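Hello again,

I reread your note about wanting to compare the complex against the isolated chains. To keep things tidy I'm splitting this into two emails, and this first one only covers the full assembly. Below are the input lines as submitted, including protein chains and any nucleic acid or small-molecule components. They are followed by the predicted structure of everything together. The single-chain runs will come separately.
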Amino acid sequence: MIKALIASITCCILLALGAAAQTTMQLAVNTNAPGAVISKNIYGHFSEDLGHCIYDGYWVDPSLNVPKQGRIRMDVVEALKKIQVPLLRWPGGCYADQYHWSDGVGEPSKRPKRLNAVWGMVLEDNSFGTNEFLQLCDLIGCQPYIAGNVGTGTPQEMSNWIEYLNYNGNSTLAEMRKQNGHEKPYNVSFWGVGNESWGCGGNMTPEFYSDQYKRYATYCLNYPGTHLKKIASGSNGEDYNWTEVCMKQIPTGDMWGISMHYYTIATGNWGHKGSATQFDESEYFHGLKNCLHIEDLVVKHSAIMDKYDPAKKVALCVDEWGIWTDVEPGTNPAFLYQQNSMRDALIAASTLNIFNNHADRVRLASLAQTVNVLQSLILTNKEKMVLTPTYHVFDLFKVHQDATLLPVQFFSPSYTYNKEAVPAINASASKDSNGVVHISIVNIDPHNAIKINASFAGAANKNVAAQILTSAAYTDVNSFDAPNKVKPAAFTDFKMSDGNLSVNMPRLSVVVLEIK
Ligand code: AHR
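Full-complex prediction:
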């Protein structure tokens, strides 16, 4: 919950008859009542063996003329390092529950070729497997988060995988890891026990899954040096019963977290999700409205978790989120390739503000799916690479990683479309270990700038610097021909005096202020 919500304000000031309305609102950052630490793992990402995320995304043909380490594309790695990606989830998604880890280790030419039956029946040559994934994480400097196979796997298979990864002895599995080039254990700790077990992960009931979780988790062993953070496969959006049953049946000491998946569908229609680039204000409005709905889900799932876990030991892990649109015309529908617009940047920033404000329970999240799939950070086309507007949001927001949440109080003016209304402004704030305060503010209103008068107890005489991400149209994208259309810039339309900061938030903008 946002600890202290809603205080005062807002009034509309009509500048002159017939002129556009300039809205002003008050916002208070409570620097004296720090909240939870915003786990850096809220800023995690998800990459599945799907379309061109792994293959042709990170893992490229040896002949491709880009900097590479082995077959790992280093310009992609460098871009992810820059935004301090803390965690990467793999191999799925739905693919996790048909993936057998032993297919992806050992001499690459001897690895079996399998059909990727979930994503387009393409041939999976398994050249990217466990060791390659962990090498990728190592290059990025992030923690691996592996989703184990419950749907078509066995407890023995899952147990073996963990022994292969984490055991520092002379067992046959540990020796196999050493022969495959990694002498030391990998110390993988984030461990998903299945994925979407209510659907592609086995179509289970929550009662059946809870029993399966306990069965599999029994054999997920902690080897010296690594304590597994086991994460139960959680609900599909509003399925509160799933959370209720799992929390009731699985002892809280036996799971580090439980997941929740929620995708923003701008049209609200999975059969026709809408284009990533050609959409009108109705789709824009509903995309943002459906994105903001994730706060309701977080609040309601957290309330259920509070009943069984009042000390909040179990994390809510939103390990799949983001906007899902129709694929780009002419691309394989099973590959989920979509462009990424200014709208998507506003969706990312608003969602991250929500996660920050619920950092007491949301302690891990991963956006779907990093490169070339769904709400990507990066798009590639042969040698070319483009950073999306969503990438830039993660760059601006990285200042919140592991900082302490500072509650913000405000009452937002509305963005109204056809008699429906959503808050135009969302925000979150934090203080880092050097005492620097950051506040991230989003104005989703496509028509109106909003003036924010912000008060910060104890912030008098501080220096302020800011960056903005904005664009003329919510449909604006970064393309291979124009890769820098939407990118951050220095922002100066603010004034600090006597601890009061006034900020003119342009329409369609994300602003991150640094106060030190
Ligand atoms: O991210 C695409 C798919 O969405 C994942 O494989 C699955 O977990 C979810 O339904």
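For quick reference: The radius of gyration is 23 Å.

B.
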